[in-house]
Structures are given as C-alpha cells and as structure tokens.
Amino acid sequence: MAKRFPKGLLFFAIALALLGTATWQTWNWWVITTAPIASSSAQADAKPINLRVAPGTSAQEIGQDLAALGLIRSARAWSLWTRWTTFQDAKGGFQAGTYQLSKTQSLPEIANTIWSGNVTQLSFTIPEGWSMGEMAQYFEQQGFFSAKDFLAAADRVSVAQYPWLPATSPMPGFPRLEGYLFPDTYQIASPVKPDAVIQQMLDRFEQVALPIYQQQKDGTSLTLGQWVNLASIVEKEAVVPQERNRIAGVFTNRLRKEMPLASDPTVEYAFGIKQTPDRPLLYREVETPHPYNTYVNSGLPPAAIASPGKASLEATLNPENTEYLYFVARYDGTHVFSRTLAEHQTAQNAIHDQRDATKSSTQ
Q: Burial of 201 by CB count in 10 Å (0-12 exposed, 13-18 middle, 19+ buried)?
C-alpha cells in the first residue's frame, strides 16, 4: 500500500513553488525594466534626449516624464527603485535642471545623474549686430526664459558692479545696456536664468572690448559710450570685412563736419522697421523726427543700436583716413563710396536702375 503525502507538506510545497515562481517573475521584471532601452539602432539609442526638471518636481513626476520620453520602460519601476534603494535614506534629493540623457543608460544610471545634479551645459550664440530686442526674442524661442524676463533682468544690473556702464536709460522705452552685451558663443549651466546670461555677456565685454578702448583711448576723442554707439552703427552698415574701416572713416568725417550720419539702421531701430531690397525705407520714415533718426539729427543717436563685435569696435578706433563722405549699398553687400553729394546721387541712381533691370529680366 502506497504511503500518503501529508497534506501540510503538500500545501507547503505548492506555496513554496508559487513563491519561487513569483519571486523569479518579479526579479525578471525588475531586471528588464531597469535595464537600458535597446532598439535595432545603436545610433538612435545614443541620441541625447533633454529632460528638464523644474524646481519642486517630485520623484514620481520625474519618473512619469522619463517614461513619457521613452528613457525608462516603467514609471512604477522608477518609483520602486527610488523607494527601495539608498535614495530613500541618502541626504539630498533629485536636483532641478536640464539633463542630457539617452536610451543607452539604465534606470539606476539615470537616477544617479539626476540625484547628483549633473546638469547639461547649454550653449547660446549671439551674432554681431543684434539688438537687445532680437536677443530677447531668441532666448524666448530657445525656451530659456521669456523676452520680458530678459529685458527686466537687464534693467536690474547694478552700476556698482560694472561702473563703466551707463547709469540710466538714454530715453524711456530703450534699454540702457544696448551695445554692451558682447556677441559671442557662450556655455551656461541649466537651469538658465536671465541674470546669469546678462552677467556672462557683460563680463565678456569687460574682458574683450573694454581693454581695446583702454589701450587706445588717448588716440581718440570718443568717450566709451560714444565709441560703442558709433561702433554699433558701423556693425550694422558693414557687410564685407574689407569695408569696415572705410565706413568708420566716412562716419568720422561726417561727425567732424557736423553732418547728419544719415544711417538707415538708426531709422530702423527708431521705428522698429526691417527694410529689405523689395521694401526699402520710405521718405516719410526717413523724415520722421526721432532722437535715433540720424537723417534729421546731427551727431550720434542717444545710445547704441546693437551689439558691435570686436572688428567693428577696433575699426571705430582706427577709421580709414579717407575723403569719402557718402556711401550707398549695392545688392551684394558691398558699397559705392563717394566724395560729393552729386557723385552719391549718381551712384544711387545707377544702383536703382540696375535693380529695376534685374527685376524686369526675371519676370
């Protein structure tokens, strides 16, 4: 007669088998969900994905964002990991900022990156000749901060920190830092704040531009403000490098003779106009009174109209010794320079006729 297996032992064996199966399945799920997300393309997996963690974001919200971006398989696994590992008892917390992550990283690696605050270094580039208004729009489009916040931060800059800066705005509605935010490519840690960006750009002006003036100020009658002011107009007018010093020479001659500078970019800045070959400035715009309109006013405008680069700053201190008093733009970036008004008008007419002939031949 066969011996019967005790019921208690049978139930225990079944329970142990089920527990072992559940433990194995849980472990298998854990390993899979915390491993890097692999695809058929290693290049696609390595592509950086930016995650922005705003101040005050909870660990659960971070996990949801990571899952939504496809960086982890499961927000639940993230929640369990942050509860069961040393993150629960460790000092500190997940740090705000922008992180550059990829699908080649495992969940623990991603968690360590955000916990340690290893934020991404972001870059931004400000071209020569941009106004502060253009900079403000650029930063907003890049998602750094709003245009309004940028301009407000510029107004907060202390003259005590930068004593060479103008103390007040040249006139209501126009930023006092115009011309002093040095154009360059910058690296900055995330999260990006407008005050930090402005400080970087003013520091760069102090490092690059200010020594140029200090080394040559004995050879010029221009104050620092006048220098930046005139250099900004040279920057906007000069397209090809070889004409930069000549254009500076023309404006220097006109200032000496107390002639209006008659610079189109100052009118554009005054009235917020952007002229094109098919939409040049109108006579009524050029003749409209405004402190920045150098057609109706002699001398320099109240302040700079853009941020000049190093080349324009140097050219303004070293203008070409020339007899030219006028120049007019061709449609290839170069200019025709003239000594007299009659020569200038002849050059203008020739360029306009050429433009009209070109347009007719293409129609």
A: buried
Stated pTM of the model: 0.74
User: Averaged over 98-116, what is the pLDDT?
Assistant: 87
pLDDT tens-place string over residues 22-54: 444 444 444 556 567 665 555 566 778 888 887
CATH topology of domain 46-119: Dna Ligase; domain 1 (3.30.1490)
CA distance 315 to 98: 40
- List C-alpha distances in Å: 302 to 134, 229, 233: 19, 8, 12
Written as one string, the DSSP assignment of 283-352 is HHHHTS--TT-TTTS-S--SS-SS---HHHHHHHHS-------EEEE-TTS-EEEESSHHHHHHHHHHHH
Give the Å distances, CA to CA, from 111 to 94, 99, 151, 198: 8, 11, 36, 32
What are the structure tokens assigned to 214, written together?
């200090």
